[in-house]
Structure formats: C-alpha cells, structure tokens
Amino acid sequence: MTRTLFTLSAAAAVLSFISASLAEPAVLGVNFKKEVRRDPTHLNRLARRQKSITASIENADLLYLINVTIGTPPQPFGLQLDTGSSDIWVPATNADACVQSPQSCKLFGALNPNASTTFVDIAPGQFQISYVDNSGVKGDYINDTFAIGKTTIKQQTMGLAAQTNRALGIMGIGFDSGESIAESGTEYPNVIAQMKLQGYINTMAYSLWLNDLDSNDGSILFGGVDTAKFHGSLISIPIQPDTESQAITSFTVVLSSVTVQNGSGSTQYSQKNLAVPVILDSGTSLTYLPDQYANAILGGVGATNDPNYGYTVPCSLSNSAATFNFTFGGPTGPTIVVGINEFVVPIVTTDGTVPTLQDGSAVCNFGINPAGSSPNLFGDTFLRSAYVVYDLENNQIGLANTDFNATGSSVTEFSNSVIPGASAAATTLVVTQTFSGIPLATQTQASGTGMVTGVATPTFVLGTPGATSKAAAMLAMGPPKVETALVAAGLVAAMSFVFGSSLIVLM
C-alpha cells in the first residue's frame, strides 16, 4: 500500500506541475459567516486534542466550517477547518455515522463514490485515525476533485471513512508530516501542498482571521497576508520541532510570558522568562495552559469548577476592562493582547435556558483551562484576538494583534521566504514539543439543572463589572448566535463559509 500511495501521489504531483505552468500564482481568500445549528444526533466532534488521555469538554466548540465540493459532478460538504491535523476526510454515504444519523450526514455531507466520475480508490482499507476511547475513523485513501469556491484541485488525496461515529468531516491544513499515514514513513501532498503544486499560491502558507466572539464574519487567506486585518507589527517566530523525531509536525511556538492587567493597567499576575511549548490550534475551542499557570488565573478571576459546566464565572466578568498579554519567542517576540471578554463564553442548557447563580445572575464558562498531562493548546478563545500567519514552507509563524471587525482589505502574496510585511524577532527562544501523533479526542457531553451553586472570590482586582456586560446582554436576547457551551447533544455552533457573494448553506 505504501508504494501504491506514494506512486499515485507522485503522479498527481506531476500533473499538478503541468497545471502550475498554466496558471499565475496568486492567493485564495475565503470569507465565512457564523451561525448556530441544532443537530441532536451529532455527538462526536473534534474537541480538545491529546494523544492518549480522554478529555471531558464542557465548553462550547465553535466549529469553523468551510464549504467545499468533492467529485464530478460536485457533491457539497461542510468540513471543519483544522490547523491541528493534516488530512482531509469525509464519511461515505454508507458509513456507520450516516446509517445511525442520516440527518447529520445530510447536514454536513457524505460522499457517494459511485456518483463521481473522477473518483479513484487508491488504498482500500488503509486510512485510519485512532481516537483516545478506542473509537475512530477507518476507511480508504482516495483521489478525487476537490473544490473551494471557484478553485478546483485535481486528484486530491483524501480519506473516505466507512467506519466512524463522527458525521462531520475535517479539512486538515497542517504539515504533510502530520498526516495519519506519516507514521508508516509515507507522506502525500495534502491540500496546502496541492494549492502550490497546481499554481494557485506561491508558498504553502495561509493567514487566519477569526474576528471577535460577537462578530459574524472572518476569513482565511491561502498564500498571502491581509495587512488590513491587524494593527501594530506582524512579527515572525520559528515553529518548534518534535522532541523524538526533531521534525516539524505541529504549529508549536514558545510562550515566553503571561501577564494579566486590570483596566487601570495594574498588573494582577505575571509570569516571565518562560519557555513553554504551545500549539496554535483552530480545532480547539478553549486555551489550555500548564496547570500551575491556569489554576492561578482561574483562582484570580474567581472561576468555579462546576461538575456540570466546567470552569464557570459570572457573565458580568466580560464587562471588565482587564487584559491578558501573551508574549511568544522571547522579549522581542510578538505580544498578543486578549480582552477578558473573549474568555467569557455563554452557556445554554439542554432546555435552552441559561444557568444562573442563586441570585439569578447569568453564568458563563471561562476560556482558560488546565492542560493536565495533555499538550498546551491555544485555541479559539486566544486565536480570535490574533492575526496568525501559518508558513508551512519556511517553518515560521507570524503574529499580530487583530483588527476586530475590519472592513478593508490589502492583500500581499508570498513571494519568498519572508512573511510579507513581517519582521523577525531579534532573539528567539527554543523548545521542543514533547507531544506527537494525531491529537484527537472524542467529546463527552454534560447536562445541567440550570443552577450553579458554587461561588469563588476572585484574588485579582479586575474592577467592578457592570450588570449589563456584553455576555449578559447576549444571553438576555436568548441563546447566543455565535458561541455557546455544549451542555447536551443538540447545540452545534457552526460557521458557513461564503465564496464571493454567494452563501453556500448545507441542508
């Protein structure tokens, strides 16, 4: 199988090179819209990643769904965009998840190989991703036409899942070395590599702009940087290697300091001179820090570890002007400032109500958790405040503070080994990532009574939040339309991507 997959992938690369000679390298920009979908049968979703430890996730997963088509004629899909994995895979129409939950596969898409004239099964039974509870995804490696908007990629290698309890497929946009087959010593050109091979982009790189918790739009830009989407300096730092292999397999960077300041600029917590490996991962909702730092912050903000809802805080905390300042790569590296409101995530219970304290005030999740023995992950609660450039070709990350709700655009293509408009950090720290493999986990669901009884006293002096905070105002209008905490099966926060001026809705 290894030789077959390599040979067919090489053949695809040759054809791609011919295509590249016929097209001028450019950029591929994709805008998206956020919306809430209810899908009571879609239980297992991409959640907090780890190699061998089961995680119980009480927080919301804000899914970043990109609309694509596969096959000829095209079959539509909504795939979860994930920087933490490298394979594209979709369920087959006869997959376990589709038999058990036809509505889920109708919602997100399932591939009928018999309906595609360009479908080729290149490695039957050889695609496999294992989950931490011994479940997972098994099926075939295939080649077929893969399209994003008006951009068509020929002979894209993907996984076609026959055995899976997860109806939502994934568009992994990590390194080739992170592919599930890489452990066997074989790699293939994944979607980022094919974009370059087929002439759509100059460099295997993309920029991610998630925008803030309340906004309804954001974008990913393949092959370029949009300088209108951030303010201040864009600073590049090196991606760190895996400890065992010394290979680059994940978007690991060095966290060098964490500081919490209140609205008056007074420092409430500070850890400097750190050298902590953290993974920038859009497939993870929250931010996971080493326990000693996460627990200090949770105690500082007055978070309570509720058995039903996880780490909770009064929603009014989002009205505080406090900020979290994260510096990467050393003292000259980029510092990303995150308002505390981005860490205050609304919750909706099974019956659609909002959990409250005994005094009737609304309760939210807090978006920083302890990592335990799992990898340190900087997920969406952090990434929304950062403009992130992922340069897979030159093994570097560019970071700048996002310009929330920016309406303009000023795109520059990659043309060499330097991130457009970026300056390199003068001195950079070096660490190695001890985590390796495909860090996927199944998700357990929580249920609640709607009442949180525990109340903790904050140790940080953050100021007095107003009674009508952003989070409280969102909850007063009913279930939030952007990000909610999943406390029972049935609430899926999703994003529908827009191509050009036409919104593709998968129903």
Question: Keyphrases for this structure?
Answer:
single chain, 507 residues, 8-stranded mixed β-sheet, 7 helices, 12% helix, globular
Task: Explain what this protein looks like in three dimensions.
- With 507 residues, the protein is mainly beta.
- It is 12% helix and 35% strand.
- The protein has helices at residues 2-20, 96-100, 102-108, 191-197, 291-301, 380-383, 470-476, and strands spanning 28-37, 65-70, 75-82, 88-91, 120-130, 136-148, 151-163, 170-172, 205-209, 217-222, 224-226, 230-238, 252-261, 267-271, 276-280, 287-289, 304-306, 310-314, 323-328, 335-339, 344-348, 363-366, 368-370, 377-378, 386-391, 396-402, 411-413, 422-424, 485-486, 492-499, 502-503.
- The strands form 5 sheets. It has a 9-stranded mixed beta sheet, with no helix packed on it. Strands 13, 14, 15, 16, 19, 20, 23 and 24 form an 8-stranded mixed beta sheet that branches.
- The protein is globular.
- The chain starts with a helix and ends with a strand.
Low-confidence segments: 6-23, 33-61, 436-447, 466-507
Shape: globular
Query: Based on DSSP secondary structure assignment, what is the total number of beta strands?
Result: 31
Fraction of residues in β-strands: 35-45%
Main β sheet profile: 9 strands, mixed
Number of helices: 7
Spatial separation of the terminal alpha carbons: 36 Å
Summarize the structure.
The chain has 507 residues and is mostly beta strands. It has helices at 2-20, 96-100, 102-108, 191-197, 291-301, 380-383, 470-476, and strands spanning 28-37, 65-70, 75-82, 88-91, 120-130, 136-148, 151-163, 170-172, 205-209, 217-222, 224-226, 230-238, 252-261, 267-271, 276-280, 287-289, 304-306, 310-314, 323-328, 335-339, 344-348, 363-366, 368-370, 377-378, 386-391, 396-402, 411-413, 422-424, 485-486, 492-499, 502-503. A nine-stranded mixed sheet has the order 28-12-26-25-9-10-1-30-31, with no helix packed on it. Strands 13, 14, 15, 16, 19, 20, 23 and 24 form an eight-stranded mixed sheet that branches.
